[in-house]
């Protein structure tokens, strides 16, 4: 489905530019009238010291440059401006101290960053689209609600949700990263609900510098290394500035150990955690429904095959297909009905764990980064610069989501299958059966599924900036045009086709004694019989029949075009100081096209490379969905955005007794081609009180997130399903597709804080506490077919448009499964920051000591699905998610001119599996879907200690080392209702102790 939108025209861009310029000039005219009046002396910006050893600076992260303060939480750049939105800034020295091979890892450790995705997340997924994507998330609201910028400019998305890949950014030229922990849509536009992360490059860097580093874990895996170099030089009497950088990095990942309860390379903490879940109907006995267990054993399959029901239930197969009695855990005994005594479907505890697949997921992906960046700036005059930047980033990753391809008791084996041992064929005859149910982990497969995502970004920016005099006042401007292209290719190898697998395992002996596929149509189309009875040699021809070399593929091309113009200046002055204004306009166009392979997508006429995917009578050539996993579908879509904004800083108080105060206001009008007009705004204030070092700040804002390309234009996927309607079971076509009627999410963001910054009675000390309350309405969320039917029955007419159940012909009944603006989110909590810096010379010791701590306390993270039969769920402190009650980061650094040492601590508080569970061991209430009962609802926290240091061999050469997770603290078990993973890498360190060392050269 595609809704084409017009490309930007010169007239469109000029109208936006003129509109913002007129606003600027109108205020300048007022300034002319006030020019003859006495002007209050502007308050000089007091730069906050940037302590080199800390992971983050103090609470007031403001950077002074030539008496003008620039902060990413605002578009205002003015002398004396103190913005009300909390911002944490990490300087180049701070980032270097972390010694991370990827800056993403350093930033994601900040307490406010929760729910970020990196190379240790989504490694158990084939089709999530975020594999190998390093994206940042603030407040647990998701990367789609966190705006990530490069030099204040948008970057083309690295997947169809529009989020950027930080791994594609130039890292050696980053001089500062600002993390704005508050709504910033009025200043920066859509997606800034959780806040903004702005990477700022050193545009005037001169000289040459290089980094080389390497490392590995305690377990001698995830070996990594990186090489970075940057160069800059001024020419033509300092009018031409050229900077360039190139980087190569490789993190080799942690490979799957295969099957069984064995962690990779000696990690003994993996113990198959899972939930045993009793049926609701049995919870009237006073016992809990949920029990968290370890050493969970699936009894619906074994490593090389298990008969799962009937008189032969409990017969497993081993070497050369020989049968043996399967060892169920929990002293379980098969009943012949598919159940096992003393076990809770589908788990026993202990027994034969050799077929477990949970530990088979890679702990970390093999990731390779190749990044190049250049900026060329030319000063037309001392006040005007034109520039050009080019950024190339290629990130390749590789991982295995799971070994084999488990079949949970859903296979039927005929008793005349010639691969069965004679004893089993005889047992079939003796028990008068012709077939039996069968499950297998498919450990016989010669290769594990392996996924290879590659993201390649090419981005160019041309722009100009400078300053000019108007009405006796100095104004600055910046304007740019950007074109970015990101190509994402996901290639999957050793994936099986379901229909071919089913045909190949159903073997029969031909009249000539050979073994062939039973299905004559399949045999005529090239079917080769495949033996899954026990640990037996694999016929390569049969393997390639069920898992062709041309596996699932998805190819995506995304483009982003931006034209932007901004003005900044002090329009006039009041008695309290100059009134500053920032205004501008922007046009943005986003487009994507994704192509899936014919076997996954279906509809061969619309799929390229059909020669590599020949038609097969066994496969669904229309709908697709033929793969075991990784069924990618074609889609494309486009939308454009036109917006203009204005922001004001108005001083309202300047008194020797009462201090200084200012009000910060911003308003942005946006028009989306898909959803129409929307407004965002901000109202904030900052008061530097008359009390020594004390400052108060508060800000409230309306912020927005527009639906992304995937939510709008996701391709239609059709499967058969059933729903319950008016007491009847109705067969339907479930049509999953994007929804072009989606509206922007609307958020209300409120922050109130107190700052103590270097009072005279405690020089070097700063602290702050900020309370935040974020409420998001109209959250875009997908529903199930049944939920849509229920909502329609409850009277929701918007949903009824997607439901059709009144056709007399069953095949004409359908439910279009889409995302809707139904849900809501609310996040409340507070941030604490504190730092103290002292010169040790006063104590007769060399160097400086810096102490710093950052903590986020999540009071509540409430999600309301907005669906009939559900209730809001509380996510704060649910450690299976991304929002623990407490997340902290602290450091203690000793720095001298020659060497430095930094000790840091990362902390996650203990929590629960879910706040909706009722914990009880006896006399439990009857469990419900909304509030299940559980025997133990506690989930451990984690406390990590890191140590780093550096030694300066000369003015140009510095060596450094870093040890992360010195105590080799294990991740807390994260039980699921299956054994697909069993850890939560978005919250816990899953690598263990990591050693890194390297050299830095700076000339």
From TrEMBL:
It is found in: Cell outer membrane. Residues 83-196 form the TonB-dependent receptor plug domain. Residues 37-47 have a biased composition (Low complexity). Keywords: Cell outer membrane, Membrane, Receptor, Signal, Transmembrane, Transmembrane beta strand, Transport. The keyword NAD does not apply. It comes from the Bacteria. The keyword Transport applies. It holds the Pfam family Plug. Residues 37-62 are annotated as: Disordered. Residues 1-31 form the signal peptide. Residues 48-58 have a biased composition (Pro residues). One of its GO terms (cellular component) is cell outer membrane. It is a multi-pass membrane protein. Belongs to the TonB-dependent receptor family. This is Vitamin B12 transporter BtuB. It comes from Duganella phyllosphaerae.
């Amino acid at each position: 489905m595609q809704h084409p939108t017009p490309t930007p025209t010169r007239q469109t861009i000029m109208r936006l530019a003129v509109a913002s310029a007129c606003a600027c000039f109108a205020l300048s005219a007022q300034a002319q009238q006030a020019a003859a009046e006495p002007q209050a002396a502007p308050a000089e910006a007091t730069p906050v010291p940037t302590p080199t050893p800390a992971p983050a600076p103090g609470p007031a992260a403001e950077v002074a440059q030539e008496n003008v303060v620039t902060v990413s939480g605002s578009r205002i750049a003015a002398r004396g401006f103190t913005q009300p939105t909390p911002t944490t800034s990490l300087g180049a020295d701070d980032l270097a101290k972390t010694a991370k091979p990827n800056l993403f890892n350093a930033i994601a450790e900040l307490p406010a960053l929760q729910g970020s995705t990196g190379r240790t997340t989504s490694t158990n997924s084939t089709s999530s689209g975020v594999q190998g994507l390093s994206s940042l998330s603030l407040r647990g609201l998701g990367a789609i609600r966190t705006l990530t910028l490069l030099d204040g400019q948008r970057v083309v998305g690295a997947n169809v949700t529009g989020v950027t890949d930080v791994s594609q950014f130039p890292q050696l030229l980053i001089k500062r990263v600002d993390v704005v922990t508050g709504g910033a849509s009025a200043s920066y536009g859509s997606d800034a609900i959780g806040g903004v992360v702005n990477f700022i490059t050193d545009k005037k860097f001169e000289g040459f510098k290089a980094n080389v580093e390497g490392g590995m874990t305690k377990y001698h895996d995830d070996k990594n290394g990186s090489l970075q170099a940057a160069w800059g030089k001024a020419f033509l009497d300092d009018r031409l500035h050229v900077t360039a950088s190139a980087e190569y990095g490789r993190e080799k990942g942690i490979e799957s150990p295969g099957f069984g309860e064995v962690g990779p390379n000696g990690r003994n903490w993996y113990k198959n955690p899972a939930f045993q879940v009793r049926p609701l109907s049995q919870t009237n006995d006073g016992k809990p429904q949920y029990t968290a267990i370890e050493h969970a054993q699936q009894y619906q399959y074994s490593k090389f095959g298990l008969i799962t029901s009937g008189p032969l239930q409990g017969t497993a197969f081993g070497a050369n297909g020989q049968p043996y009695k399967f060892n169920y855990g929990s002293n379980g005994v098969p009943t012949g009905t598919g159940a096992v005594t003393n076990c809770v479907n589908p788990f026993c505890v202990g027994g034969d764990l050799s077929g477990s697949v949970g530990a088979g997921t890679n702990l970390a992906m093999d990731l390779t980064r190749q990044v190049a960046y250049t900026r060329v700036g030319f000063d037309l005059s001392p006040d005007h610069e034109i520039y050009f930047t080019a950024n190339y980033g290629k990130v390749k990753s590789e991982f295995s989501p799971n070994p084999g391809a488990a079949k949970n008791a859903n296979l039927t084996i005929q008793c005349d299958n010639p691969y069965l041992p004679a004893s089993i064929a005889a047992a079939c005859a003796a028990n008068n059966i012709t077939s039996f149910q069968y499950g297998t982990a498919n450990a016989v497969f010669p290769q594990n599924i392996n996924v290879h995502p590659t993201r390649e970004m090419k981005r160019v920016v041309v722009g100009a900036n400078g300053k000019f005099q108007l009405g006796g006042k100095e104004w600055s401007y910046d304007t740019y045009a950007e074109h970015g292209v990101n190509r994402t290719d996901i290639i999957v190898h050793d994936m099986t086709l379901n229909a071919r697998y089913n045909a190949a395992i159903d073997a029969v002996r031909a009249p000539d004694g050979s073994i062939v596929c039973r299905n004559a149509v399949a045999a005529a189309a090239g079917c080769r019989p495949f033996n899954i009875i026990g640990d037996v040699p694999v016929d390569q021809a049969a393997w390639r029949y069920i898992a062709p070399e041309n596996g699932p593929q998805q190819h995506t091309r995304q483009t982003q075009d931006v034209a932007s113009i901004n003005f900044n200046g002090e329009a006039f002055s009041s008695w309290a100081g100059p009134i500053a204004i920032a205004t501008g306009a922007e046009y943005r166009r986003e487009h994507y096209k994704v192509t899936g392979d014919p076997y996954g997508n279906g509809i061969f006429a619309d799929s390229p490379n059909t020669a590599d995917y020949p038609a097969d009578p066994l496969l669904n050539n229309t709908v697709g969905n033929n793969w075991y996993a990784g069924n990618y579908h074609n889609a494309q879509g486009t939308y454009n955005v036109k917006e203009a904004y204005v922001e004001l800083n108005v001083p309202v108080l300047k008194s020797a007794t009462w201090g200084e105060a200012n009000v910060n206001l911003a308003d942005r009008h946006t028009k989306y081609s898909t959803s129409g007009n929307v407004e965002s705004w901000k109202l904030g204030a900052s008061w530097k009180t008359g009390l020594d070092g004390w400052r108060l700040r508060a800000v409230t804002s309306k912020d927005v997130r527009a639906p992304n390309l995937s939510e709008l234009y996701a391709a239609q996927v059709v499967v058969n399903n059933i729903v319950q309607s008016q007491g009847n079971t109705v067969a339907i076509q479930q049509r999953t597709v994007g929804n072009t009627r989606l509206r922007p999410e609307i958020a209300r963001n409120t922050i109130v804080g107190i700052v103590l910054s270097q009072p005279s009675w405690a020089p070097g000390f700063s602290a702050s506490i900020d309370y935040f309350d974020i409420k998001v309405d109209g959250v875009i969320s997908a529903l199930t077919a049944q939920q849509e039917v229920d909502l329609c029955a409850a009277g929701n007419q918007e949903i009824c448009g997607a439901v059709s159940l009144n056709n007399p012909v069953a095949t004409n009944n359908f439910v279009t499964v889409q995302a809707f603006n139904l849900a809501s989110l609310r996040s409340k909590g507070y941030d604490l920051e504190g730092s103290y810096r002292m010169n040790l010379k006063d104590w007769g010791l060399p160097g400086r000591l810096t102490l710093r701590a950052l903590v986020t306390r999540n009071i509540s993270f409430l999600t309301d699905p907005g669906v009939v039969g559900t209730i809001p769920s509380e996510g704060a402190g649910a450690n299976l998610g991304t929002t623990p009650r407490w997340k902290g980061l602290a450091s203690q650094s000793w720095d001298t001119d020659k060497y430095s040492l930094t000790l840091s601590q990362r902390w996650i508080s203990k929590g629960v599996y879910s706040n909706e569970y009722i914990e009880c061991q006896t006399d439990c209430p009857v469990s419900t879907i909304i509030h299940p009962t559980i025997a133990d609802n506690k989930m451990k926290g984690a406390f990590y200690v890191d140590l780093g240091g550096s030694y300066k061999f000369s003015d140009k050469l510095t060596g450094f080392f870093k040890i992360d997770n010195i105590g080799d603290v294990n991740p807390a078990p994260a039980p699921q209702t299956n054994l697909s993973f069993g850890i939560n890498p978005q919250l816990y360190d899953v690598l263990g102790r990591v050693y890194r060392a390297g050299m830095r050269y700076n000339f």
